[in-house]
Every structure is written in structure tokens, then in C-alpha cells.
Amino acid sequence: MTTPMFTLNGVSKRYTRGDDTVTIFDHLDMEIANGDFLALMGPSGSGKSTLLNLLSGLDRPNSGEILCDGLRIDAMTQSTLSHWRARNVGFVFQAFNLLPMLSAQRNVELPLTLTNLSSAERKRRVDTALDLVGLAQCAARTPAQLSGGQQQRVAIARAIVADTRVLLCDEPTGNLDRSSSNDVLELLQTLNRELGKTIVMVTHDQVAAGHAGRVLHLDKGSFVSCPA
Ligand SMILES: Nc1ncnc2c1ncn2[C@@H]1O[C@H](COP(=O)(O)OP(=O)(O)OP(=O)(O)O)[C@@H](O)[C@H]1O
């Protein structure tokens, strides 16, 4: 039996727009094991990104509990939550979100700038992360000098440079062609299998979901089973 990393107990999430209240989740329960590679699928508006935001503590539930390693992240103060997030969670976005004026090296270093690591240690970690994603030779290039797939691999290096255990990926291959997508998905698999990263990946792409260890389909705020 694998240890749960995340546990959601009876999580409800609503948004209010003017006079309307939209319920995204109503008493949702789930577990994500340490070392899981989970793909989240479902129609637009089914709450996939909301779930990622709840798992990272960027958003809070209206009721219910969200635990990570037994700690109630939904009940943490903003400052404790910021420290918890910096230590535990790396993000990968569809649009890469690299800073265009900075080199790959500097982009990857960003999560380390507010730590008290020495510049030599920061450089060592950045070199290791870039090496892991196969882009050591591109460290001096800016995003415009890299292909889309390479930019996403730099973004993944940035997501792992602080040695966080969880990667939350929101449509990481949504802007990539099939060949670059495969490179990124194989990289995520390697990070999961060889470094034990726990990965939650939102995707609309069946092929991408096929790289995950398990797939959950969200619809109208609940998990539904789908034919394989
Ligand atoms: N901050 C917010 N305020 C109000 N409504 C929101 C907010 N964030 C999300 N929503 C609404 O919650 C619902 C779920 O949004 P979410 O982005 O989680 O869906 P999704 O499954 O990720 O969709 P997509 O596949 O289109 O990205 C949508 O109806 C969205 O409009």
C-alpha cells in the first residue's frame, strides 16, 4: 500500500459571480499517493485547474479538508502556506511562463533567488536541473532562441530546481507538436520513475494521459469512470 501524499476529505468549492453561485466541487474525496503520476481529464469547466489550485494552496475550499503528508494545507496561514509551497510544489504551465529577457540559466534559478543558498550552490542546482532535462548546452540562450519543446523543458527544470516533490502541470503539452510533446511526457515519466516526483497533470490529450500511471476523469465536479 502506497502512502497517500494528498488527501481530500469532503472538499466543496464554490465561486460567486454577481448573484450567481457556481458549485465546482460538492464533497469531493480523493487521495494521491506519494510517487503517483496522475492525469486529470474532463470537459472544459469541469474543475481541473481549480483542483490543481486547491492542491497547491493557491485557492482554498469553502469546506472540507486538504491534507498533504497529514498537514492541513487548507488551514495554514498565508505565510506558512507560501513556505510549504516553495518547499513542496513546482508548477508547469501550458504557456511555459518563462521570462523572455532572461537566459534559460536565469529562468531556472528564479525559485532559488529568495533562498539563502550560496551562489555556487544555486549554480550547481541549476546546472543539475538543466542537465536532467537535457539542455545543459542551452543555458545561455533566451526563450526566443529555444524551440517550444525546449522552452517547456526549461520550465520543467525551473519546477524541479528547488527539489520539490510535487509537480503540478496544467496542460504542459497543450502548445506543443506531437514530437515535442512526447519529449516532455517522457521527461515527466523519467522524473516520476527515477526521482520519485509526484505528478498531477491536467490534459485534454488521450496520448498525453497514456503516459501517466493513472487517469481520472472529472465531470460536473465528480470523478467518473470512462472506458479505457
Ligand atoms: N476565480 C474564479 N472565479 C469565478 N469562477 C471561476 C474562478 N476560477 C474558475 N472559475 C469557474 O470554475 C469553473 C471551473 O474552472 P476550471 O478552470 O477549474 O475548469 P477546467 O476544467 O480547468 O477548464 P478548462 O479545461 O477549460 O481549462 C469554470 O466554470 C470557471 O469559469
From TrEMBL:
Any single GO BP term: response to antibiotic
Pfam hit, one: ABC_tran
UniProt entry tagged with the keyword Iron-sulfur: no
GO cellular component: membrane protein complex; plasma membrane
ABC transporter domain location: 6-228
Coiled coil location: none
PROSITE patterns, per the entry: ABC_TRANSPORTER_1 (PS00211), ABC_TRANSPORTER_2 (PS50893)
GO molecular function, one term: ATP hydrolysis activity
Keywords: Antibiotic resistance, ATP-binding, Cell membrane, Membrane, Nucleotide-binding, Transmembrane, Transmembrane helix, Transport
Transmembrane segments: none
Superkingdom of the source species: Bacteria
UniProt cross-references to SMART domains, sorted A to Z: AAA
Record carries keyword Cell membrane: yes
Family: Belongs to the ABC transporter superfamily. Macrolide exporter (TC 3.A.1.122) family.
Official protein name in the record: ABC transporter ATP-binding protein
Native species: Zemynaea arenosa
